[in-house]
Amino acid sequence: MTAIAFIGLGNMGGGMAANLAEAGHEVKAFDLSENALAKARAAGCTIAQSAAEAASGVEVIVTMLPAGKHVQSVYQESLFAHADESTLLIDCSTIDVATARAVADAAAGKGLIAVDAPVSGGIAAAEGGTLTFMVGGSDEGFARAEPILQDMGKAVIHAGTNGTGQAAKMCNNMILGATMIATCEAFALAEKLELDAQKFYDIASVSSGQSWSMTSYCPVPGVGPQSPADKQFQGGFAAGLMLKDLRLAMDAAEGANAAVPMGKRARELYEAFVEAGNDRLDFSGIIETLK
Ligand code: NAD
Q1: Which of 89, 145, 147, 267 would you label with 224, given CA atoms 20 to 30 Å apart?
Q2: pLDDT for res 124
């Protein structure tokens, strides 16, 4: 049993904190939302009145916040001043590589070990404890984080030094955004060429056009396993979050002087899709704009 502070109990963090409590850890939870706090209390967490209060007297602090600026401010304003010297800091939020490295450096300056551990898998995986964690940090940081992350996930992989967990997340999601659009446009073209969607799936899913976007998350209703397409694109992975990840990837690519023409086009298409009011729709719903 480990004493853990959990800060950021939203769609993802709520289920993750509940799984840590369920695994027998002593979880001190904090969020700005009263509703999120009430759910955490019902899931067996103790409620803290502030991030600073949550951070003191625990062995591990997990954050699951919206973006880099939230992580930066919670770390700077609450965690660095109140965490014990031996406390491990694990940030599971999806944020930019530069901020992940900056907070890890600032933590090291205070004698603290920090790792970035963004996740693959959505709200259902957070609730079901089946997330994949990609971890950036030292060997010691990873060794200490791994058993805690195992209690919230099905796979915990050490990507490398600080920031490489975030790099893995954005490179993965850049592939996802581009392959989803490619899969959608192929289904839209097949329809116009009078090729039945199920027949196309049967062929492409065992041919070189196969991808996760096709065989695990098919954007066409009634084809392949159950996916958001079968529920009018409700639930699933929101287009707004896909756009956030593509923007992070494009910013990182610019900083690294990397050529990412497909990622750039995917970002432009998701930008237009989100601006048209589809922010909360599943990202595979972009097929509707291609038909
Ligand atoms: P969310 O908006 O539902 O939750 C974020 C929570 O952080 C909110 O409850 C908010 O009140 C809280 N918060 C914000 N500032 C705070 C502060 N200063 N102190 C304490 N609490 C604060 O977001 P989410 O969907 O849970 O996503 C969290 C992170 O996980 C994001 O970085 C997102 O990109 C990433 N992610 C989300 C999904 C998904 O499917 N939702 C999947 C993978 C990764």
Answers
A1: 267
A2: 86
